[in-house]
Amino acid sequence: MGRMSKTDNVVADTETAESTVAPAAAKAGTSRGSTPHAAKPDGEATPSNPAEPQRIDTMFLWNRLKRTDPKATKPFTRSGGFRGTQIDPTWRFQMMTEVFGPIGKGWGYEQIDWTIAERMIFICARVWYIDPETREKCFTGPQWGGTEMVRRRNGMESPDDECFKMSMTDAVGKCLLQLGLAADVYMGQFDDSKYREESEAFYAAKSNPDLQPAAVEAFEAEVKRRLNSCLDLDDLEEVWRSGVGTRLREIGSIDRAAQHRITGLFAQKKAEILKREEEDGREAA
Questions:
Q1: Interior CA angle at 221 toward 218 and 223, to 5°?
Q2: Same domain for 223 and 132
Q3: Residue 145 maps to which CATH number?
Q4: For residue range 250-277, what is the model confidence (pLDDT) as tens digits?
Q5: Tell me, what's the pLDDT at 16?
Q6: How far is CA 122 from the centre of its chain?
């Protein structure tokens, strides 16, 4: 068996903690969320032993978009006693821009139809987006949104010049739900106070400057530089204990892909050190 070090225990602790953190951002390196099946015993694809296809993570976008920032919500009550959670439309646009890019370039929406009935304006729309991996242009299914054409104040009615905009906002919001955006609200998870607290912690961490993509990229580059200087397992452990483990747990709450990559750097370096020690031992013998 290979030599063990304290680094192994810390890496194991980090990987265990990953199972409890919120889903993160995009997968990196291999195709989106794909995990190759285990190779056959002979290690090669043959007519009798074909290579199995990779699994595609069909929940990638849904999991990326489903968690709602509590600050972007507020409760509402309608006539008849119906209660719900209202989601800030601007926050929806921000999330789509974060995942797909600027509106009009990475995603957008288009009106398909509209009609007026019973003093209400109805608009049918659909959303398009560029798949982050395949760069294919995709569409949601069409959805209708509706708003009354008049507003009532102090017992008086007057035309609502916002009705067209609100109907479009309603339709687009329903389309975005098909991708998973703010799905936790519609699935009733926001009724759980513990879940809302977790979401608050998630978005607080997400706004941390040290956890922004550029900062994580710089941290990963620094880890690579330090690992290149490691000569043995003691050096490797020293790097890990210098705060890398704690930082990785923080990164994992936002970007599990980056956490996996950086943790993998340690595993790769350890394998290189053990291989070199084994070769040196054979030469000495």
A1: 110
A2: no
A3: 3.30.390
A4: 888 778 889 999 999 999 999 999 999 8
A5: 43
A6: 33
Looking at the structure, do residues 90 and 195 belong to the same domain, yes or no? yes
In this predicted structure, the answer to whether residue 47 has a pLDDT above a threshold of 90 is no
The gap from C-alpha 202 to its chain's centroid, in whole angstroms, comes to: 11
For residue 42, tell me if it sits in a domain.
no
Residues 6+ apart with CB under 8 A from 184: 66, 67, 68, 190, 195, 199
DSSP letters along 181-246, please? TTHHHHTTGGG-HHHHHHHHHHHHHHT-GGGSHHHHHHHHHHHHHHHHT--SHHHHHHHIIIIIHH
SS3 77: strand
Start-end of H helices in 19-152: 60-65, 89-100
Does 81 reside within a domain?
yes
Closest CA to 12 of 270, 226, 235: 270
Cβ neighbours of residue 249 closer than 8 Å, sequence gap 6 or more: 14, 17, 21
The torsion angles phi and psi of 75, rounded to 5 degrees, stand at -75, 155
How far, rounded to the nearest angstrom, does the alpha carbon of residue 149 sit from its chain's CA centroid? 38
The predicted model gives 215-229 an average pLDDT of: 93
Q: What is the pLDDT of residue 54?
A: 61
